[in-house]
Amino acid sequence: MTAAAGRLPRSLARRLLPLQVAVGLQGMILWVPVEKLFMTQIGFTAATVGVMAAAYAAVVPLLEVPSGILADRWSRNRVLVCATVALMASSLLGGLSTSVPMYILAAMILGVYFALNSGTVDSIVYDTVMEETGSSDRYETWIGRVRMVESGAFVTSAIAGGLLAGWTSPRLTYFVTVPLIAVAIFVFLRFDEPRLHRSADPVSVREHVALTVRTMTRQRDVRQVMLLSALAALLAQAVFEFGPLWLVALAAPAALFGPYWAALVSTLGLGGYLTGKLNLDRHAIVVLFACLGPAATIVLVTSRSVLVVILAQAVLALLLAIIGIRAGRLLHDAVPSNIRSGVSSGVGTLSWTLFLPFSIVFGWLAREQGVHRAAWIFTGTAVLVGILLLVSVFRPPAQQAEVTAPQPADLACRELVDMVTDYLDGLLPPEWRAGFENHLTDCDGCTGYVRQIRLTIEALKELKAADAPHTT
Amino acid sequence: MKAWLSRAVANTVVRGEEPGNRVARWSRWFPTRPAVDEAEFQGDDDPYPGHWREFPAPWLPTDGTEGQHLAAAMDELPAPWREVVRQRDVAGRAPAEISTVLGITAGQERAMLNRARAFLWARLARYRTGNSTP
To answer: Measured between beta carbons, which residues in chain B are less than 8 angstroms from residue A412?
Structure first.
């Protein structure tokens, strides 16, 4: 180790820059807006589109847990690189596809990308913030910035991909995507990965799953909120996955797919914005939302106008984004913090698992009856989402897992260890200092810990004289 | 435009890890992490949540190789933490001077110092509870 003493620590912003650039490039998937158009050109029918969606939906939950473990035990940066290689391979294979099975294979490789990519950037940002600032306080700000870059890339690539497909051919969008993703791989490799790993000895997966399942099955309100969250996510996914089929059925021009996709993608950000503005505890708004969802799906059943269909899909996507955020918050409040991420990945798995049969049924219905009539399955799901949403408001969760802030009079050992430096420096406010000292008189464990921290500091002082390899 | 986007995105953070759709995925939350490894403390299902699973074992007298162990542990620290602990505990500089030089806030400096000390404590505890002493 040759880090020079006295050097300024690289600022958080500078350190995270390559990650942001890479995430932005990774979002430049130009073929996404015209995918369904291209698929139709190589011989896909609505039924095989459903099979394709089911195929990758099966891959993701299977790989999600192993990929998380791999990221924790091996290197998250390398997992991200592997994910991006999968994305590149999938784009290349997709572009080369001339048949349905070959494209389905490409879609399954894309599933590998989702599984490896999911949550990995989040953990990296978390640990980098922790390393550069000593706490996770700024995590939300930074993950927000990363997501902003990503959303910007989605919107840009939607427009660019649509235009490119309009001028040339949908197939070309796949090939143009490949070098962009290749650059992302190189930029990821330039990123200085945090050394901290969230957990050196992660709680065993089985334990975590068991705890999550217990929480889900014991509490009815948690179960309902999880189902709401999963169904809202499923329906949103269905709009993004199958929505373009309406444009194909109505023979919309290729260039329209870009703005259409950009509108759909931007509803996600807009949903976040509106959630901040709207009071979702107001019954009138919730009733309106619960009715508007099914209404938008009925428009998809009946309308033959491209613009009306696009509008209905955008409204549906927007509602689902808002409902998804709302459900996420309810879930957040209903489960204790240590299993929140477990429960939310449980929701993820539930949603993928439900999406699988949904895709096959939708595909089959669309082939037999056309996409318009198949949209009744959207209506059914939207009605369910509406009912669960209403239930969540009119019967608020009975018991909330309260996240209590530590109190001076009732300090746990886990909280005390965070205050030791402030205590030794005499920086704790009087009531906290009293609480700290009270705890020490009753707790041999913490007394020992503080004594050993003092010994550690003593030993560090000694390091200066003796074998300190990098003192100033 | 930028303002609303950033607020929009900050809001989406609360959604947790959700599949969303194939292309746009949102962020996950993480529980806060104490300075000492979470596994040292009892969980919510244990009799005393948040308290030590086992009290830290008493330390044996050092056999004189403590410096080497500590220097090796220092190398394992993330660079910014190592820098703070080196300036403060090894070189004995004043906190205000360090935060100015390193361009961090006083709060960040203390947080990094506390986590770095806890990390070094854990490494030193391995050695001073009998692993490599007579």
So the answer is: 41, 49-51
Q: Could you tell me which of A186, A134, A196 has the C-alpha nearest to residue A19?
A: A186
Type of residue numbered A287: V
Q: SS3 of A83, please?
A: helix
Whether residue A3 and residue B79 make contact (CB cut-off 8 A), yes or no, is yes
- Using CB atoms within 10 A of its CB, is residue A120 exposed (0-12), middle (13-18) or buried (19+)? buried
Size of interface A-B (CB pairs under 8 A): 306
CB-based burial, A417-456: b 16+ in 10 Å, e otherwise: bbbbbbbbeeebeeebbebbeebbeebebbebbbebbebb
Q: Which pTM does this prediction carry?
A: 0.82
Q: SS3 sequence, B37-76?
A: CHHHECCCCCCCCCCECCCCCCCCCCCCCHHHHHHHHHHH
Nearest-Cα residue of chain A relative to residue B49: A412
Phi/psi for A13 (5° steps) reads: -60, -45
Residue A393, CA distances (Å) to A22, A182, A228 in order:
41, 47, 12
Quote the CA–CA distance of B101 and B107 in Å, as a whole number: 14
Quickly list DSSP for A259-272. HHHHHHHHHHHHHH
CA distance A168 to chain B (A): 24
Question: How far is the alpha carbon of B3 from chain A, nearest alpha carbon, in Å?
Answer: 10
- Give strand pairing partners of A407: A410
Distance from CA of A130 to the nearest CA of B (A): 8
Alpha carbon distances (Å) from A465 to A93, A238, A408: 61, 66, 39
Nearest CA distance, B73 vs chain A (angstrom): 11
**Mean pLDDT per 10-residue section of chain A, whose length is 472 residues:** 41 90 94 93 93 89 75 82 96 96 95 85 86 83 80 90 93 97 95 71 61 73 86 91 93 91 85 77 90 96 95 95 83 70 72 90 93 95 95 68 66 92 92 93 93 93 64 42
Residue numbers in B near A425 (CB within 8 A) = 95, 110
Which of A274, A421, A425 is the best substitution to test chain B (most B C-beta atoms within 10 A)? A421
Q: Distance between CA atoms of A269 and A154, rounded to whole angstroms?
A: 11
